Amino acid sequence: MFGEEEMTELRPVSRVLISEGIIEQIKNLILNGDLKPGDPLPSEIKMASQMGVGRSTLREALQVLIHLGFIERKGKETIVSPSVGQKLFPRDILNHYQAHKGIMEMIELRKVVESFLAESAAIRASEEVIKRLGEDLKEMEESIGDVQRFIASDHQFHLRIAEGVQNKVFYDLMMGIRNLLRDSQELVLTKSREIPPRSMEFHRKIYLAIKGRKPKLARKWMVAHLKDVEREMYQILTRETLKEVSNGN
To answer: Whole-number mean pLDDT of the chain?
Structure first.
């Protein structure tokens, strides 16, 4: 029996796709026989604490496992499905997440690189580049109702920041990830109407920090912007995975 007192098998989850890590750990415990049909899972509070994740993230992962047939609700408990052994599950059940893994890893890269670029641009960018950055921002504002135009102007805004750093290697790096960047923007902007206005506010703050020669503030708002994109992307992928699994069943 794998109960409240025996939670040493679960480990903290540190990957970008946190839900995938949660699902994989619990799924493998079931497939390996550590969790048997009918066994209760520990409380959400205990699992979230041991894996180092938020309860809302844990609940989303558990919901995926319920749809997959690995676990089910029984009153106030969550248990391993008694019929789990009768089902045939593909080894890589998270194909939908895997298909978008490159996008999520790209966002992780952007948080590191673009926070540095924003900070550096606030120090190094010429007045001409800052003027053009303002024009890019205006183009974003004017295209907020046109997804493709908004994406193009958003992309140009970020490239302009890289240009302002006056380092060709960084500029070439941003050019190199432009296709993945466009994929992530299209996925987010076509799935959520709330994102464009929120994105505009972040871009405005980034621009004002760079224009005001405030490097730490520029870094702060760039990180906040990309974390917001990451959260939205995670939620979209989770919803799409749940939908895909439901349709498959």
So the answer is: 82
* 134 and 35 fall within a common domain: no
pLDDT in tens, 198-228: 999 999 999 999 999 999 999 999 999 998 8
Answer yes or no: do 136 and 25 share one domain.
Answer: no
CA distance 24 to 101: 15
Q: What is the pLDDT of residues 85-134, one digit of tens each?
A: 555 344 444 455 555 666 777 888 899 999 999 999 999 999 999 999 99
Is residue 129 within 8 Å of 163, Cβ to Cβ?
yes
CB 230 within 8 A of CB 126: no
Partnered with residue 177 across adjacent β-strands are none
Does residue 189 fall inside a structural domain?
A: yes
User: 131: which residues sit within 8 A by CB, 6+ positions away?
Assistant: none
The span from the first CA to the last CA of the chain, in angstroms, equals: 29
Look at residue 244 and tell me if it is in a domain: no
Q: Are residues 49 and 108 in the same domain?
A: no
pLDDT, tens only, 161-184: 999 999 999 999 898 888 777 877
Q: SS3 sequence, 59-121?
A: HHHHHHHHHHCCEEEECCEEEECCCHHHCCCCCCCCHHHHHCHHHHHHHHHHHHHHHHHHHHH
Question: Cα separation of 113 and 141, whole Å?
Answer: 25
- Do the Cβ atoms of 182 and 152 come closer than 8 Å? no
What is the Cα 134 distance to its own chain's centre? 28
Q: Give the count of domains, the chain.
A: 2
